[in-house]
User: Fold these one by one.
Assistant:
Number 1:
Amino acid sequence: MEAVIPLHDENPTSTRSWVTIALIVINVVVFVVIQPRDQGSRDVDFAYEYAAVPCEVSEWRPLSRAENPTTNGGVADVCGPQTPGYAQSCDEVGPRSDCTRFGSKSILLSLVFSMFLHGSWLHLAGNMLFLWVFGNNIEDHLGRWHFAAFYTAAGLVATFAHIALDASSTAPLIGASGAVAGVMGAYLVWFPNAQVRTLVFLLIIFFVRIRAKWLLGLWFLSQFIIDPNAGVAWMAHVGGFVVGVLVGLAVRESRRARHAVWAERYDDDASGLWDNRFGGRDIDASPRYDPPSFD
């Protein structure tokens, strides 16, 4: 088993990251209180009722019964009017409920709902850990409202990147990974040298300090070697990360962009405080134990 898990970045913030905290709380509450977790039909039905499905987004309508694997005998990835048993459109067969199981589903809202649904405790915990480690600094610099907008936009771009890879897929897309990947992309650009205390599983378990540029760069490259049959929306991760990098670069290179989107407390600092050469803005000068570092 091999794993690299970030635990904490040495990059203090100047304010409490309330939006990041709220996002974590909402994701946990949705998973624990709202989502069915019986790993059976209720769990699957919930995903199809509320999550984004590439075929639905590309056709901009709910799946017909002929397209929905829960009602067509388990046949996946059949999408469009050419699907056997598809009666051209729901409007032509009478009541919408006659041709689709979730006729009242909002395709637009499903794009947002997908970012708050998760498939397992491990899926949820991984996304929330990465959001906490890297999200608080991005929120600290963007401010609460701009960060919320950036997070949502990154998640939407990630969803459309996944759909572009296979627009006919009838598998629901769930998880905050794409939005979190956007946060990670911006962090890579603004804080490349921030030290991240990391837990590494490699035959044995040990702790190291790794600069963000190596940790996040490795994570990004690893997306391209994920098994296509693993059920991981790797293109959503790539899409979210790329938009985060692009936004990060645009802000870093433009004084006008920083003035427009950064929190006022950082607006006058032309350096941006993103190249944290020795970790973060260390406000604690007391001696401490430092695990090995990878520079």
Number 2:
Amino acid sequence: MRSFAVVFMLLASLAAASAQSMSDEAFGRHVGEHFRSGSPSGKHSELAIRVVALPTGELVAPRIPVPAADDGWANSHLLIGCNEAVETKPWRAYRLTASSSFTHFDDTEAFETRQAPRFVVMLESCRLEEEAAAPGDPAALRERNLALRHAPENLHVGPTFVCSDPSKCSGLARTVLAESAAPHLLGPADIALVQPYQVLRHAFPVDRQKLRAESGAFTEAVVKECRIPKRITAENPHGNPEGTERYAPCIAKAYERQRGIWLNAVAALPTAGALEEARRPAVEHRFLQFLLKFHGYLPETTRIDGAYGEATRTAVVAAQTAAGLPTDGFMSDALARLLESKP
């Protein structure tokens, strides 16, 4: 499957001239029926889709509604690829048309490894025509930002760390990594916990050692309270640790409790942007870090993880300077709006 150049697409409109013309919802249901019936292919009428090209060569648009099912696919991604190679320019908008038939398959490995499940539709043929858009056109910017949200590094939110060597990773870390996707969503919970911590770290540089000690004590308390073993060695065939789901609810509650404590401390700061950053939804918080890189304030090699460390703070100050905003280093709502509206 990985040999295909898959693309995330919204089937925004279909040709009305065809007697079999379908809306995007109807197409989703149509594909879903083939999936549930076990049929590997189907036919569709003319499709007319507005897409945006990613630097990777993939095409992306808002996802279409994926047919709900009882097997966990209700929140999956519907990916659409072209069997024929197409040439594109990064971040340009295109009108894609396709007709005839499609084949589909599900990425069960992604589902079983607790990544966002993917349902793939490959079109028999795709035709692209570049669309001209005025600089700063609001509709074009909305499409661009929607495309950015579906870039590969933005599909999974959290956690803020990686574990390259599982044998050296703590039981808590492996649990958070393993339970980052549905249903426990400890990845976003980890980002939400780190948000106010990083704000306090930036606001009180002389107290960072004290804050680090407080964080370490909290981690030890979570391990004890949730009875998490120091190491988790049992693994399933996909390399994920076994039994981590039993600890996840307890971890989530502890993270939320500590987040509240740190948020109360942030609320006492005189800068409004500090609290705006600290309580922003984890998905948006991480996406704004990505926008800093997209607009050139962060180096291309920067890992987008939702943790606003020194490099991200420097990037925020640079963006504030360019926008004529106070350079306090906090991702305020005003700066967030400017980053999203910047061409």
